[in-house]
Amino acid sequence: MEETDIIVIGGGSGGSAVAGRLSEGGKYRVTLFEAGGRNTGYRTRIPGMIPFQTPATNWQFETVPQVG
C-alpha cells in the first residue's frame, strides 16, 4: 500500500472495530498498526492457553477497579 487515508494505532477490540468500519465501504484506505509479532505459538492457537501466555505475547498489565 503506497497511500492511506486513515491510520489506526492499536488493534485491540476498539481499534479493530474502528478500522473495520472505516474500511467497509471502500471510501477510505485504512492502515492498522499493532504491536508485536505474528503470535503463531501454540499458546496463542489452543483455546484455554491464554492464562499461560509468556511476556512475549502478553504484557501482563494489571488494573484496579475504576469508579463509575
Short summary of the structure?
The chain has 68 residues and is an alpha+beta fold. It is 22% helix and 12% strand.
Q: Unreliable segments (pLDDT under 50, ≥5 consecutive)?
A: none
Mean pLDDT: 89
What's the order of the H and E elements? EHEH
- Biggest beta sheet summary: 2 strands, parallel
Radius of gyration: 16 Å
- Helix percent reads 10-25%
Globular, elongated, flat, extended or rod-shaped: what is the shape?
Answer: extended
User: Which sequence of strands runs across the widest sheet?
Assistant: 1-2
- Extended strand count: 2
First-to-last CA distance:
42 Å
The count of helical stretches stands at: 2
What does this structure look like?
The protein is of the alpha+beta class. The protein contains two helices and two strands; from the N terminus they run βαβα. It has a two-stranded parallel ribbon with strand order 1-2. Helix 1 links the parallel strand 1 and strand 2. The radius of gyration is 16 Å and the shape is extended. The mean pLDDT is 89.
